[in-house]
Amino acid sequence: MHSNRAHAHQVFCNLLVGMLLALAAAAQTTRYSPEGDQLPGPDCLNPVRPSAGQPKICTREDYKIWLDDITHWRNEMRIRAGYSGREYERPELKWARSSFIQPQMMVEDRYFYDPESGQYTVDKYLDDLEKRYGGIDSILIWSVYPNVGIDDRNQYDMVGTMPGGVEGVRKMVVDFHRRGVRVFFPVMPWDQGTHDPGVPNWEATAKLLADVGADGINGDTFWGLPRAFQTAADDLGHPLVLEPEHTLLAPFEGLTWNTMTWGYWQYPAAPMVSALKWLEPRHMVNVCDRWKRDKTDNLQYAFFNGVGYESWENVFGIWSGIVPRDAEAIRRVAKIERAMADFLVSPEWQPYAATERYGIYASRWPLEKKTLWTIVNRLPTDTDGPQLRVPAQSGLRYFDLWHGVELTPQLAGGGAFLSFPIEAHGFGAILATPDAPDGKLQALLEAMKALASSPLTSYSNEWKFLPQQMAKLAKTATASTAPPGMVKIPSGDFVFKVNGIEIEGFNESGVDVQYPWEDSPRRHHLHTVHVDSFWIDKYPVTNAEFKKFLDATHYHPKDDSNFLRDWRNGTYPPGWENKPVTWVSLEDARAYAAWAGKRLPHEWEWQYAAQGGDERLYPWGNTWDDAAVPVPDKGRALRGPDGVDTHPRGTSSFGVADLVGNVWQWTDEFSDEHTRAAVVRGGSYYQPQGSVWYFPQAYRLDQHGKLLLMAPSKDRAGTLGFRCVKDVE
Questions:
Q1: Does residue 601 have a cis bond before it (omega within 30 degrees)?
Q2: Does the pLDDT of residue 338 top 70, yes or no?
Q3: Which of 373, 436, 445, 616 has the most crowded Cβ, counting Cβ within 10 A?
Q4: What is the pLDDT of residues 164-179, one digit of tens each?
Q5: DSSP letter for each residue of 404-443
């Protein structure tokens, strides 16, 4: 989601934080107030206002005036915040300083969990990232949105319904730790419409993360996590790193205990400086820009600021993959940052260290008698020759870390200069040291020299969507006469028009699903389909009908967590025989259908049976009718669906009933290399309140829901049932 789910919302957030920070800065005389989590560079660069003209050539005096000003700002803001950096010294939290690469990972990612074997595949997931971009330091495991709200399970329940429950999740976290990867889970303050956990949010979060052995909390939509989260974790003896999604607000008191944040940044030609990193050099920012296909700006700004990157690709089931060129840049940037992590927390960090060439920007990181420079080329052209003026100091050696070679200063014009190449939109890193390379540095130089033999430009920068496949449905045995409880739908040419209502993704390629006649996944679909005649259940399958299936077959799923969760002692509650069966997975529904000699409907068959041929919006017509559907349940606990025959006014022109507003219904399954999902139709009676991020309803017949699939334990829902079809002879 995170709250960048819609462009307009993010623009509003940026404006809001800018206004708040501007007000906070009004008491100062600074000329460089932060804009979001970024301080603008010297005026001579016009970094935030490119319309004012091209950046100028800055003098050393320009840089000194700027550095003095933002240093004054830092000192004042620390006083206003009563700032203490003691949390950054806690041994159990120090790892956050070097958590440079962190993806947000959907639990539904097929590299992470194999539903066939029922096993978490952490090594497969990490091996893929190691191969493609050099691996990760931490991971945000995302188990809640966008499926949360399909029923009353809250954010903690959604973790508990992952395969193996809490114990299974704990073992999975151990697998990440075995590979040296720290683990975050999110907390959603907006989740106040589902099941009430019964304790304060911070206590529930701290306990769950202690139970599963996680290392940190990602605060979704938070502008700084309250200290109560840290206190709750400490009280349990399981300290956690706090990582809010957004920057902290002035006067930045929360910087003391929020030792990480995300960075939604803007990218003028001259890099801006992370305000939080400037206030506290030990603070870690992971730059996030998940929909942007060219990551050059993100990575250059991260390298210039000595911070990390959110390598997020599976965006709520929508693949926004990192292209090979950017993947290789991540590999090299991260390799240097990890090796030089001690430099990148230097309290003597100097952004905009002097360089010799226009468009080349450097940060200087002194550490004892050594110095590191992280350098970016913001120009679209290669550059070579003198880049840095350095002290002509005897015994000081210089190493070009990016290319893995030692440099010899060149004396000219009364100074000493280092010459080295930087490719277009590329990177550089220089280490000055009086010491001979130790084993760690020698290994870095050798590795980088091998990598640098292939420039970044030799890697493809072409972005590609992931094609999807729709699961095939085998024909059933045919029937020439009406099977009990089924309605015949005539053959015909049907204008199948439907739209995905995912909250995120705009109209990007890869959003929603890809039907067999389409060449890519997309949100909006229109196609004339010839539909052969078929039989369809007049009503969704009821509890009584499903009980007959169980009695006849003794069916019991291998993954039985949440299976028929509202039943007791092998049967449904009294009076529920005519209610639609729920808490059944796609696999459970298919098993029932096979036993009955039927199958699940294709989505267009379901829609044709509901809509007829006149493109009506609802089964009964074009105007919403409250009497045609159950009364919405807006509470925090499911009351249960209505009987399938309770609302005859909701019947379609073909005589099919209970299509909309009682329970969602399973139809087609889609998959790509990373994600499985099912199209669910009809919406349900349950409407959790208080947030726009809950699973959206799709009552209209030109809309469908897309439910991400992981495993039956998590896929089953208290508002999700099914009906079957049978082919006509």
A1: no
A2: yes
A3: 373
A4: 999 999 999 999 999 9
A5: TEEE--EEETTEEEEE--B-TT-EEEEEEESSPP-HHHHH
pLDDT in tens, 661-680: 999 999 999 999 999 999 99
**In 10 A of CB 76, how many CB atoms?**
16
Cβ–Cβ < 8 Å for 569, 534: no
CA angle 4, 6, 10 (to 5 degrees): 50
pLDDT of res. 3: 46
CA 311/CA 457 separation, integer angstroms: 20
Q: Structural domain boundaries of the chain?
A: 18-81, 470-727
Quote the tokens at residue 611: 């809509």
Contact 287, 298 (CB under 8 A): yes
- Answer CATH for 470-727 from 3.40.1280.10, 3.30.70.980, 1.10.260.40, 3.90.1580.10: 3.90.1580.10
Q: Helix axis angle, 296-305 relative to 324-339, nearest 10°?
A: 10
Nearest Cα to 89, choosing from 366, 370, 347, 363? 347
Contacts of residue 575, defined as CB under 8 A and 6 or more positions apart, other chains included, come to: none
Residues 68-82 have a mean pLDDT of 94
Contact, 261 vs 99, CB < 8 A? Answer: no
Global pTM value: 0.94
Percentage of the chain beyond pLDDT 70 is: 95
Looking at residue 503, what DSSP letter applies? S
Residues ≥6 apart with Cβ < 8 Å to 627? 647, 649
Q: What is the CA radius of gyration of the chain?
A: 29
Listed in sequence order, the residues at least 6 apart from 705 whose beta carbon sits closer than 8 Å to its beta carbon are: 501, 664, 679, 680, 681, 683, 695, 696, 697, 698
C-alpha 308/C-alpha 330 separation (Å) is: 10
In order, the DSSP letters of 185-253 are EEE-TT--SS---SS-HHHHHHHHHHHHT--EEEETT-SS--HHHHHHHHHTT---EEEESSPPPTT-G
> Taking the alpha carbons of 607, 504, 176, 456 in that order, is the dihedral positive or negative?
positive
The whole-angstrom separation of Cα 49 and Cα 269 is 10
Angle at 262 between CA 233 and CA 23, to 5 degrees: 100
Query: How distant, in Å, are the alpha carbons of 471, 521, 529 from that of 671?
Result: 8, 11, 22
Which of 131, 424, 421, 84 minimizes the C-alpha distance to 259?
84
Computed from CA positions of residues 336, 338, 340, 343, in that sequence, does the dihedral angle turn out positive or negative? positive
User: Can you give the pLDDT at residue 57?
Assistant: 76
Q: Are 704 and 498 in contact (CB under 8 A)?
A: yes
Hey, what amino acid is at 214?
A
Q: Coil, helix or strand for 389?
A: strand
